[in-house]
Write the structure tokens for this entry.
Amino acid sequence: MDKSFVKNVIVVMSGTAVAQAIPILITPFLTRIYTPEQFGFFSFFVATVVITSVLHTLRLDVSILQQISRKDSRNNFLAVIRINACMMLLGFVIIFIFKENILAIAPEFDRYIYIIPFVGFIIAFYNTIICWDNKYKKYKRIGVYKVLLSSVTALSAIIFGQIFGLVYGLLLSFVLGYLVAAIFSLIIHHKVICTKIRLDRMVAVVKLNKRYIFLDTPSTLLNVCSIQLPSILFVTMMSPVYAAYYYMINRLLNAPLILLSGSVGMVFRQEATEQKLKFENYNQIFNYTAKKLVKLSLPIFVGVFLFAPLLVELVFGDQWTALGEVVRILTPMFFVKFIASPLSYSFYISDKLQYDLYGQFIFMGLVALSVISGAVTGDYLIAFYGISLSGILIYSGYFYVSYKLSKAN
């Protein structure tokens, strides 16, 4: 198990490393091309489409990993692709009918409201492909997708901003990156994607995996909202500058999180599922993974906590000076999240999705309360302290519950 696990982690991590290094390396250029306000409004758009993309698949994409036979996996995969397309069309209808009501609440959507369902579809399609390839351990292919997405997004952001001077260059590059990655994956998987699936089989997939729809979709939606909600609330209640700070921190601190924790988590999810089927528990792989995550993460986050204020101004420029203190405030939360997030796949493996639902509901409430408290007091640091403490509390609880589930027969 040890050699196989480490090998698969390295394969996933190598592609993810390149994919994460690209946006980090170009960030100093982007912070001098685009203002904090532009980053703030961009984060508002990203938050919206990421939240809506969860509804596009109803989390049935994740259930692909739990199917035993290839036939069931394929039917599940095909059903998700079709459901995703239907949800996109439904999104267009909703916007057409309620456009004025939506703009009355969020006038920031005025220029790009009609592309939101399309972008949500592309993101959901990309994530579904990732789950399909993860099911069959195509980790090298997953790495190619991520590098392509990151490269196109980074290059186009510079071109749109520096050469063409487009205010919405960040937004356009985000859409283009996902579009190119989705088209590339479509070319690879066009045969299976174009396979016909009868309506009764789609209905069977929905019935068989209804727990993902009614339990995992709400919990994941709450999780995504708890992560993305601050960007929306900062823009609407305080200032897009604070939304830019929050977005930039997620961009930078999530880099080691996605690179190491995400890669380990992808392999843990597959290995733990197999171990559960063989031995009725997966405590061995859980303990092994937890120790690896602590060893990998501790030096990284200690360094970030100590040197963030000094490095931020030097690397990103004078407009971003206050970001350094905010990075330091949120670093402990990201450290705990780094360890707990990949192991929380235990909720899926042990079929205890309701635990995740409860946790995410509490987390979203605490995060919203934190930002509102900052808005009421007029002190953005209060908002960030509240977010950090909320994350530490919730992710510590996730780790404990996941550990207990790994031991249960």
